[in-house]
Design a protein that fits this description.
The complex is a heterodimer of chains A (188) and B (484).
Chain A (H helix, E strand, L loop, with lengths): L1 H30 L2 H20 L6 H14 L1 H8 L20 H16 L2 H12 L4 H8 L3 H17 L1 H7 L4 H11 L1
Helix pairs in contact in A: 1-2, 1-3, 2-3, 5-9, 6-8, 7-8
Chain B lengths: L5 H19 L7 H17 L1 H8 L2 E8 L46 H15 L6 E9 L2 E9 L5 E9 L8 E2 L13 E8 L5 E7 L6 E4 L3 E2 L5 E2 L2 E4 L6 E7 L6 E5 L9 E3 L31 H18 L7 E9 L5 E8 L5 E8 L7 E10 L9 E5 L12 E5 L6 E5 L5 E5 L4 E5 L9 E5 L5 E8 L13
Parallel strand pairs in B: 19-25
Antiparallel strand pairs in B: 1-6, 2-3, 3-4, 4-5, 7-12, 8-11, 8-13, 9-10, 13-14, 15-16, 16-17, 17-18, 19-20, 20-23, 21-22, 21-24, 24-25
Chain lengths: 188, 484
Amino acid sequence: VSERRRADTEEFRAFVLARWPGLVRYAYLLVGDAQHAEDLVQIALERTWRRWREASVERPERYVRTAIARQAVSRHRWLRRRVREDPFSEHAFELPARADLDIEAYVLRELVWQELGQLPPRMRAVVVLRIWEDLGENETAQILGCSVGAVKSQLSRGLARLRERTALRDAAGIPAAQPLRRSLRSQR
Amino acid sequence: MIQPPIDSRVAELIRNSLDDHAQNVSVRTPDWAEVEARLRGIRTARRRRVAVAGSVLATAAVIGAGVTAGHQGTGRRAPDGVPANPSPTASARPSTYPGKLDDGHVRGSLKHDTAWLTAFRQAVARDLKRPLHTVRVAYASDVGDRRIAYVFAGSTTGRRIVAWYEGHGHAAPTRMRPVGSHNFGGTATPTWDAYSLGISNLDTTGGIVVITTHEQTWQVAGPATYHGDGTVTRSVRTVHPDAEGVLEIALPLDPGATYLIRSTNEPAAQRWEAIPSPTTALTDVNGTPTLSGLPLIHDVPPADVTKRTQAQLQWSLFGLQNEAGVRGTSSSARGLWVGRIGPWVTTTIVGVTAPSGARILSVDLSAPTGPSSSTGTQVRTVLPAGPLDQATVAWVVNSPNQSGSRASPGVGVLGPVGAQTARTTDQDGRPVEIPLRGGAGLIPLQGPARPGAAVELLGPNGAVVATTTVLPATTELPTGVPGA
């Protein structure tokens, strides 16, 4: 048993050290705060370790990412985060000192980041999973523990909100939502 | 110029922005020792805050316990006879899972409902992407207004999935949803495993399900009652599994209440386990934490009351109310103090007043890495009925164990409003006195701080206005049950 335990520990250690940066980055995109992201990763890893020892984790990477995403959207954490400083605006418009910096593009990306921070956690998670992780609706629904319909509606509403933001719309030259819906209908 | 579809443009903007931030966020991979220390800290905090996990779903709860000690074949359980579970196949590799419950028997009120079980196994096989012959149902039953099932699913690698499923009472097989295997775990000892299961969308009842392989006696302790004299009691009842080793107890939905359960037979399982409790207690109807907008009881310097420290206060309150099992409808909470006691950590002190007037206090020391990163120091205590502004508490201050920093050993103290000085004696009997800052402070000691030592709080005229004794650095609430 102890040999099995040692092997499990070693396997888990290798997994953690190899995947730590990727998991923290993933969590960071979900919550917008590096420290909070590390918290989420630690909690998810602790849960994973418990399952690992029971040999009941088939796909550890998927398991950890699911745990992170669910923690990120959980109401309990949302209540806690709500009274924290707005993490998404923390570094907005602190221009990095890079000679090749395209300031307009940089500002636009920061605007998007800021607007993402204004979305409710679940909506933001759907946007991150669908657009950045490039996951399908079914997989996103499984990870967040919700229905496919909820994923569709959350993504639709999230994108609509981003389109509606005046600052983003002006900076990117995006027309408002009403003309957009008309243009999509005309495309169909 | 042809404009690209607007959704593609927005999606591209989002992708670029997320890419940018993912690349630029500073990530340091900690060494393994640090990871282990952090996981230990989380584990400790989780065990103290089991009920907090339950509150995530704002639900009632079910605990299922599978006793795995080797008492198979006692002859008490009826033979299977239910063709819903497959016979073990020669191709199935032996599992590494230590449980004995995966024996082909179906327990619970649905054990003879072959059609439902077969359809359920098919649904689970689809859900878990496993061959049907490796999916086995150990338990399926209606408890209260819920339908609960416990499933084993093997794989060709020898690993095994253990999953709780739940649905509304009389739910169709396809309406059952996995709960226990993903977000919720429980505690494990060499001889038994407990899996907590939060049930969402619960209307009227929660419940406890215990599945054992041999006869055991269990005790269930009801919600804690905090009396005006500072004592805590719970009603304890003894319950027995049925002939199949199944124990089902439906519990009333009682937000904020915490139940405890333990086996009295199995030595390793005699520790009381908290059953996650649904609670959004101490928040208003909109879910707004009650601490929001309320000033702290003590006159804390405004610089110490930041959004981050407010979040820490809220976090402390969540932990306290869930550990204490207090109901939001009949209790009130206030932040008492926040700031630095010792050079490295933020201390938050919150208090809850129970219906009897008893005061339940929490002292949390948070590491600088985030509001949920505990240093391992949490002091919980119950004081007799009285106003929260007269609450007094003193505790041993240890060094943070995760940040690598060192704090001076000493005694942290919070006095009643108006106290200006705190006084105690060191290990050689020499008096040590400090002025309080906003009612609290650290009494530095040359030697180790001594739990049980007396601390006096003095008013502006030098008169003693309160006394208390030093609590250990980690002090848990009295549970009101024996052997906790």
